[in-house]
């Protein structure tokens, strides 16, 4: 079966499933493979549960006339996504960056959905599988698709751009994330910038944070840019008011009180405003979208529990986002402040230095009630309480709870520090 023939089949059955636990009637099942699973082995189960066809790449599982054998299932799904993207009228906005991708994507979506029919990446399904799945969810009436792109090594964003062929792009920032895969900060800059490289080569549009010196240095001469400050008429001017704890800002003489914690979320809101303005969303609708959006999934959530004000930022962490969170927490107006910080992953040979740096920063900022947890924080030279694993932290807090007041909880996803909430 050719790709074009498969696409006609997709138009007839436009729902894609890759997990037999989530099979829906008349879907197409793509039998993906990974280090610990082989979707081909579940072909019959998918068909029995209601899939119309199964796309597989192992002949031994071709036991039904509803099976379609291809050379490689993942490549086929990616190529199908590109063909679908080319056949649709929707504009595609791609965004990547070290920090704030998912929040920014959601903000852009709530703003643009005020005036357009939009779709956006679900959660953080932003890799070589998630991007094609997002593109394949574009429907006939979709006007704008917001596609988040994640990467942990060079050339990955370039590949995702070839699949998605974006019309617009935005990089949130360049930070110390996935240093192990990228080979250092310069590798991060090069890898994430593959989005801008693709857009410039295709003469497409870039939304640029003009307050980011690294982005200005790389793209300052490129005329198709939009920023958040400056006197150039191409720029949208947005004023930061405060963040205690929620970001307040002002644009077009309107104050916007968001439910976003921390000054580090200001550029994320600015990106959404900028794109809203570019796509002619009324300013009052932009304001309403930003003020009603509530973070979720452990991303800078503010919770009140048993006399504690909790800043739960436990979805992920790297040295850049950790520093920003500490700076914001330091500037908050609270009588008692406690830090619960977990290990930052994927730092490679920089892990020891970066964890020591965060411990030193917390000390320099004057924090006293600090709980450090994880294999890397366990090794730092610090006067703070250190715990090699979560169970040790749990035991200590159950014996002696932190002082009532504000608590910042932050660590990489693998640390699952939201578990602290259960015993505060």
From TrEMBL:
Keywords in alphabetical order: ATP-binding, Cell cycle, Cell division, Cell shape, Cell wall biogenesis/degradation, Cytoplasm, Ligase, Nucleotide-binding, Peptidoglycan synthesis
All copies of domain Mur ligase central, residue ranges: 96-275
Domain Mur ligase N-terminal catalytic per the UniProt entry, residue ranges: 16-69
Catalytic activity: D-alanyl-D-alanine + UDP-N-acetyl-alpha-D-muramoyl-L-alanyl-gamma-D-glutamyl-meso-2,6-diaminopimelate + ATP = UDP-N-acetyl-alpha-D-muramoyl-L-alanyl-gamma-D-glutamyl-meso-2,6-diaminopimeloyl-D-alanyl-D-alanine + ADP + phosphate + H(+)
Enzyme Commission designation: 6.3.2.10
Binding site for ATP: 97-103
InterPro entries linked: Mur-like_cat_sf (IPR036565), Mur_ligase_C (IPR004101), Mur_ligase_C_dom_sf (IPR036615), Mur_ligase_cen (IPR013221), Mur_ligase_N (IPR000713), MurCDEF_CellWall_CoF430Synth (IPR051046), MurE/MurF_N (IPR035911), UDP-N-AcMur_synth (IPR005863)
Pathway(s) per entry: Cell wall biogenesis; peptidoglycan biosynthesis
This protein's record includes keyword Coiled coil: no
Role played: Involved in cell wall formation. Catalyzes the final step in the synthesis of UDP-N-acetylmuramoyl-pentapeptide, the precursor of murein.
Similarity comment: family membership: Belongs to the MurCDEF family. MurF subfamily.
Protein name stated in the entry: UDP-N-acetylmuramoyl-tripeptide--D-alanyl-D-alanine ligase
């Amino acid at each position: 079966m050719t790709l074009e023939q498969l696409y006609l089949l997709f138009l007839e059955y436009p729902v894609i499933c890759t997990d037999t636990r989530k099979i829906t009637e008349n879907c197409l099942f793509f039998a993906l493979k990974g280090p610990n699973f082989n979707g081909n082995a579940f072909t019959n189960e998918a068909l029995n549960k209601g899939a119309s066809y199964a796309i597989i790449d192992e002949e031994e599982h071709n036991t039904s006339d509803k099976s379609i054998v291809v050379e490689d299932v993942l490549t086929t799904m990616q190529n199908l996504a590109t063909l679908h993207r080319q056949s649709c009228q929707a504009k595609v906005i791609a965004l990547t960056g070290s920090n704030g991708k998912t929040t920014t994507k959601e903000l852009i979506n709530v703003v643009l959905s005020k005036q357009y029919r939009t779709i956006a990446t679900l959660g953080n399904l932003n890799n070589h599988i998630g991007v094609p799945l997002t593109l394949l969810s574009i429907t006939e009436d979709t006007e704008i698709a917001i596609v988040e792109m994640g990467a942990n090594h060079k050339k990955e964003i370039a590949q995702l751009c070839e699949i998605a062929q974006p019309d617009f792009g935005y990089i949130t920032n360049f930070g110390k994330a996935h240093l192990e895969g990228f080979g250092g900060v310069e590798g991060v800059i090069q890898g994430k910038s593959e989005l801008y490289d693709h857009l410039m080569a295709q003469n497409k549009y870039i939304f640029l944070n003009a307050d980011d010196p690294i982005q200005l240095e790389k793209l300052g001469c490129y005329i198709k840019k939009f920023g958040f400050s400056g006197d150039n008429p191409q720029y949208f001017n947005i004023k930061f008011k405060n963040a205690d704890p929620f970001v307040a800002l002002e644009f077009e003489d309107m104050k916007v009180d968001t439910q976003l914690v921390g000054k580090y979320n200001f550029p994320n809101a600015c990106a959404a405003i900028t794109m809203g303005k570019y796509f002619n969303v009324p300013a009052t609708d932009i304001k309403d979208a930003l003020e009603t959006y509530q973070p979720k999934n452990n991303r800078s959530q503010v919770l009140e529990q048993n006399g504690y004000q909790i800043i739960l930022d436990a979805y992920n962490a790297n040295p850049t986002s950790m520093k920003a969170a500490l700076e914001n927490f330091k500037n908050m107006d609270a009588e008692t402040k406690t830090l619960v910080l977990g290990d930052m992953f994927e730092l490679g040979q920089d892990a020891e230095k970066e964890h020591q740096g965060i411990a030193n920063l917390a000390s320099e900022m004057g924090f006293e009630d600090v709980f450090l947890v994880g294999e890397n924080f366990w090794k730092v030279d610090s006067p703070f309480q250190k715990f090699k694993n979560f169970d040790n932290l749990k035991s200590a807090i159950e014996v002696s709870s932190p002082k009532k007041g504000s608590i910042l909880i932050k660590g990489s996803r693998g640390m699952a520090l939201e578990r602290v909430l259960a015993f505060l």
